[in-house]
Amino acid sequence: MELSSHTETSFETSPDSGALSGTDERQAVRLWLRLLGCTHRLEQALGQRLRRGFGTSLARFDYLAQLQHYPDGLRMKTLSRRLMVTGGNITGLTDQLLADGFVTREVDVKDRRSHIVRITPLGLATFECMAVAHRQWVGSLLAGVPEGDRRLLHHLLGGLAQSLDNLPAE
Question: What is 53-140's CATH number, 3.90.1150.10, 1.10.10.10, 3.90.800.10, 1.10.1740.10?
Answer without folding.
Answer: 1.10.10.10
